[in-house]
Design brief:
Elements: H1 7-14, E1 27-31, H2 34-45, H3 64-78, E2 81-88, H4 95-104
Antiparallel strand pairs: 1-2
Helix pairs in contact: 2-3
Length: 127
């Protein structure tokens, strides 16, 4: 969650030394009450938390479809999120990750990124 006008700034901060690769953005959810929306998402996925001891570690074992469904329910329940303000993409650049995999496979030339950001409606079909 961020209150910044440029959410990518927050992503850069979160992609620091404490994680092995830069984060890719798979969803942009604009909310009238972002802290409430974030809290509801955390509660919704609490049983899928990776760290069962420290709840401040906000990593979950979930799919994009699960997130989309939860956001849809939250949008209906709270009215703080409207459907036009929910955007998902299943395409991820993951450049460092893919280059690392290539190196581990012994490839001498890491693949070039062909990533093109996309937030098309038909890319992610809501249920």
């Amino acid at each position: 969650m961020t209150r910044r006008l440029e959410p990518e700034e927050r992503i850069k901060e979160l992609s620091g030394a404490s994680v092995p690769f830069k984060f890719d953005v798979h969803a942009m959810i604009f909310s009238e009450n972002a802290p409430e929306t974030e809290n509801l998402l955390h509660n919704y996925f609490r049983n899928k938390s990776l760290n069962k001891v420290n709840e401040r570690k906000e990593f979950f074992r979930i799919t994009l479809d699960e997130i989309a469904n939860a956001v849809e329910k939250i949008a209906e329940e709270t009215k703080s999120v409207s459907k036009p303000e929910i955007r998902f993409t299943k395409i991820a650049e993951a450049e460092e990750f893919y280059k690392t995999q290539a190196i581990e496979r012994g490839e001498t030339q890491a693949p070039q990124s062909t990533y093109t950001p996309s937030w098309d409606d038909d890319e992610y079909e809501q249920n």
